TrEMBL record:
Coiled coil residues, start to end: 3-55
Protein name: Uncharacterized protein
Record's keyword terms, sorted: Coiled coil
Native species: Streptomyces chartreusis
């Protein structure tokens, strides 16, 4: 199973929307059902494109805040005794570090 990046998905959706638009132009105006279906499909793709474009990655301070929290979790994992605390803080540190990179 392959996954698309947001840019790849936007590009694919724009191509699909263009295809529906061309079909819409060539559809008889009297065929209201087909035109309504094509318009609905174009609108769905337009809405998804707008949704993807509004997604903002983490800012500079948010990334560094997550990195600092990951370092604090690592420090806590070495400082506190019970094994379950070490495991929990280690997993938290890995989670925070992963999301600070994106």
């Amino acid at each position: 199973m392959s996954f698309e990046t947001a840019d790849e998905e936007i590009e694919r959706l724009e191509a699909e929307r263009h295809s529906y638009s061309e079909t819409f132009k060539n559809t008889d105006p009297a065929d209201a059902v087909t035109r309504a279906h094509l318009q609905e499909e174009m609108n769905r793709r337009t809405n998804r494109i707008q949704e993807l474009q509004q997604h903002q990655p983490l800012g500079f301070f948010a990334r560094w805040g997550l990195r600092a929290a990951a370092l604090a979790a690592v420090w806590g994992a070495f400082e506190y005794g019970p094994w379950w605390v070490k495991v929990g803080l280690g997993l938290l540190a890995a989670f925070l570090a992963f999301y600070s990179l994106g």
